[in-house]
Amino acid sequence: MHPKITEVLSETFKVPAVEIHPEATMDSLEMDSLAVAEFAVIIKEKLGVDTDAETLLKGATLAEITAFLDQATAVGAPR
Q: Which domain holds residue 62?
């Protein structure tokens, strides 16, 4: 899952790959609320997982986001 997140962040939002690590947050990657909302839409399109851009994505680390997405896709969460 982390490679997919890295791909989206680096290709769509031009975040340097060196900055994309498990402890990074959207804030630390300088992703504003519009970019975070767009990231959530892209994740839904690519993975079929709804995320709450305001609570889950904005304050979470990439490790936490990855764990959430791994769990959601593993258990066949509502899409």
A: 2-68
Contact (Cβ atoms closer than 8 angstroms) between residue 57 and residue 40: yes
Q: Residue type at 13? A: F
Q: 25: helix, coil or strand?
A: strand
In the block, tokens 């994740």 appear at 43
Report the run of H or E that residue 36 belongs to, with start and end: helix 33-47
Q: Is residue 75 part of a domain?
A: no
Q: Which two three-digit tokens encode residue 45?
A: 């399109």
- Is the model's pTM score more than 0.70? yes
**CATH code of the domain covering residue 22:** 1.10.1200.10
Q: What is the pLDDT of residue 56?
A: 67
